[in-house]
Amino acid sequence: LKTNRNMGKLWSKAIEDHSEIDLEESKKLNDYRLAAHAFIWSKNDQSLWELSSKASIMMQMRFDGFIGFPGGLIDSTDASVVDGLNRELREEINLNEKYYITNENYFFSSVNHQRKIILHFYVKEVTQTELIGIEKAALDSHDYGTEVMGIIRPPLYDIKPGRGFNIFLQNQFVGNSLLQLLKTMSLLDILDNQTILKFIDSC
Ligand code: GTP
Ligand code: MN
Ligand code: MN
Ligand code: MN
Ligand code: MN
Ligand code: MN
Questions:
Q1: How far is 60 from 75, CA to CA, in rounded Å?
Q2: Ligand 1: which of 15, 34, 73, 93 to mutate, most ligand atoms within 8 Å of CB?
Q3: In angstroms, rounded to a whole number, what is the distance separating the alpha carbons of residues 163 and 183?
Q4: Can you tell me whether residue 70 is helix, strand or coil?
Q5: How many CB atoms lie within 10 A of CB 137?
Q6: Handedness of CA 181, 186, 189, 194 (dihedral sign)
Q7: Superfamily holding 20-156
């Protein structure tokens, strides 16, 4: 997914403020804060009308009104980035340790030099039944109702004109989480690039 197109003002700022950074390069920026977030998803063959959404992706409504992924800042007491991420996933979505993120789930990293923050992104695939269990457990999390106002699935429906996923894109997304969503959907082939670019052009 090319990010240098003229993408509309909704998320051009997120792209301006963040750039992709190699994991090893990011380790040299040692006065930067670290955060890590997770894209937990399953394949989905359920359909609504004749449309298939192909996948279910877990996102959340945050306390600040923005949509983002579960995860958060890595604290000095966390033994590693994935340990910090798993702590945040426990706090925010009550994630059972059998689904904990490992280094094998690493996807890519972004940096915001103004804010001096590095954002690591991890992807974990589970089965559809497991995802439903994870969603149900999330309602019992420590942060549910305070930091986390809801667990949501982006509606991956292409309903013309301008409904479904298109309407979802009109939300406000924290950091560069919209880029994380679209890029990961492209890399996992959940939506083809052409469809993603069409959505981007429309917002
Ligand atoms: P507290 O537990 O209240 O300290 O928050 P947190 O540790 O859960 O941190 P949070 O999830 O808010 O993430 C820290 C910073 O990362 C935020 O200030 C956002 O700018 C950014 N951020 C939050 N969610 C996402 C996300 O899904 N993607 C990206 N790229 N950035 C995010
Ligand atoms: Mn109905
Ligand atoms: Mn948190
Ligand atoms: Mn968080
Ligand atoms: Mn935190
Ligand atoms: Mn917290």
A1: 21
A2: 73
A3: 21
A4: coil
A5: 15
A6: positive
A7: Nucleoside Triphosphate Pyrophosphohydrolase (3.90.79.10)
Q: Is 60 in the pocket of ligand 1 (CB under 6 A)?
A: no
Give the distance (Å) from ligand 2 centre to CA of residue 156.
Answer: 17
Q: Which of 37, 75, 93, 151 to mutate to test the pocket of ligand 1 (most atoms within 8 A of CB)?
A: 37
Q: What pLDDT digit, counting tens, does each position of 48-96 carry?
A: 554 556 899 999 999 999 999 999 999 999 999 999 999 999 999 999 9
Cα–Cα distance, 41 to 118 (Å, whole number): 23
- Nearest to residue 134, comparing CAs of 94, 176, 174? 94
Interface predicted TM-score (ipTM) = 0.95
Q: With a threshold of 0.80, does the pTM exceed it?
A: yes
| Mean pLDDT estimate for the chain | 88
Tell the residue number behind the tokens 């009104």, with chain if given: 65
DSSP bridge pairs for 77: none
What average pLDDT score do residues 139-149 get?
98
Q: Can you give the residue ranges of every domain in the chain? A: 20-156
Encoding tokens for residue 78?
């966390």
Residue 119 Cβ inside 6 Å of ligand 1? The answer reads: yes
Please indicate whether residue 177, judged by its CB atom, sits closer than 6 Å to ligand 1: yes
